[in-house]
Design a protein that fits this description.
By secondary structure, the chain is α/β, with parallel strands linked by helices. The chain has 2 domains: 206 residues, Alpha-Beta Complex (DHBP synthase); 86 residues, no CATH class. Helices cover 33% and strands 18% of the residues. The protein has 12 helices and 15 strands. It is globular and about 60 Å long. The two termini are 35 Å apart. The relative contact order is 0.15. The structure holds adenosine monophosphate and magnesium ion (MG). The site of magnesium ion has 4 residues, from loops. Adenosine monophosphate binds next to β6 and β10.
Length: 311
């Protein structure tokens, strides 16, 4: 565990990777301009090099260092949502190493809403930071998740439990249309309200996989099998792990968590439940069906991640 921003800054400037807290999930940070350090991130995580990294910044001068031809729509979104859980894909400056963007001519950028991490990036400059999990594990939302994934070999800045718990929205503004590549807490409605035009999702356009290579990987999956539970299902296998949001089970013998429609808490805890269920050796996780009609901004992202865990 790292005790000060100064210590984290020194580690990063000497080419090491450090796990950093954000409001979404923990990231595995490296100096975005240090090829060797960025390469280390891929190695340590076991991440395929064709899956590009998000660059995390703390001020707009840093944005100028990595992106060019930034459209007005991006500036409007930045004003409305940064620092916050919105990643914007823009045209990349040649100074950004190819390894960061997997050879694409675009770069994904975000300003995370976390005081410790913003203070760190003020010192280090732009940091690449994929989710800090080992590839194949759910994203870490607590320091202990990272310690478990790497047997304590990765230095972690303790920022407590991530507030949102689900990865950022990714919106592509590198071409004329705004396209959501990954749903997150900032919804397509929130984006189109700000830019005053329709936002498409790449699923509709059928381009998701080509545009956002990372969405190809099922990295939201626990070892246990995840299944939706319908209100009408009455057969609940007792040796399973259950997550409910409207139904409060009357059966004491099952291991369940009940969220009483608190969808923020539900999202915040989801990956922790995935990890806990695996740790306790459960082979199935049942999640009470979530409907898109539920009025909470995290719902589309929550359904997306659970659906990917089921696939
Ligand atoms: P993670 O860091 O694990 O949260 O994943 C980052 C996500 O951002 C992945 O889905 C990447 O494919 C996506 N991403 C990063 N850079 C780009 C880019 N230049 N264009 C499109 N998607 C990107
Ligand atoms: Mg990830």
């Amino acid at each position: 565990m790292i005790s000060s921003i100064e210590q984290a800054n020194e580690l990063i400037l000497s080419g090491n990777v450090v796990a950093i807290p954000t409001e979404t999930v923990y990231g595995l940070a490296a100096d975005a301009f240090n090829l060797v350090a960025v390469e280390k991130t891929f190695k340590i995580k076991g991440r395929p090099q064709e899956n590009p990294l998000i660059v995390h910044i703390s001020n707009l001068a840093q944005l100028e260092q990595i992106a060019h031809d930034i459209p007005d729509d991006a500036l409007r979104l930045i004003k409305a949502f940064w620092p916050g859980p919105l990643t914007i894909v823009l045209k990349k400056k040649p100074e950004v190493p190819d390894i960061v963007t997997a050879g694409l001519d675009t770069v994904a950028v975000r300003m995370p809403n976390h005081d410790i991490t913003l203070a760190l990036i003020e010192k280090t400059g732009p940091l690449t930071a994929p989710s800090a999990n080992k590839s194949g594990k759910p994203s870490p939302t607590k320091p202990e998740h990272i310690i478990a994934d790497y047997d304590g070999s990765v230095s972690v800045i303790d920022g407590g439990h991530c507030k949102i718990g689900i990865e950022s929205t990714v919106v592509d503004l590198s071409e004329d249309d705004a396209v959501i590549l990954r749903p997150g807490f900032i919804t397509s409605e929130m984006i189109s309200d700000i830019i005053g035009k329709n936002v498409s999702t790449s699923e509709i356009k059928g381009e998701m996989k080509a545009k956002s290579p990372g969405t190809r990987y099922t990295h939201y999956k626990p070892k246990a099998q995840v299944k939706w539970l319908d209100e009408t299902d009455t057969d609940w296998p007792s040796k399973s792990y259950f997550l409910f949001h409207t139904i409060k089970p009357k059966r004491a013998e099952i291991n369940y968590y009940y969220y009483n429609r608190d969808y923020s808490a539900f999202a915040r805890d989801l990956y922790d439940h995935f990890r806990t269920a695996d740790h306790l050796g459960y082979s199935q996780i049942f999640i009470e069906k979530l409907k898109n009609s539920l009025k909470h901004p995290i719902i589309p992202a929550l359904i997306d991640r659970i659906q990917r865990a089921i696939m």
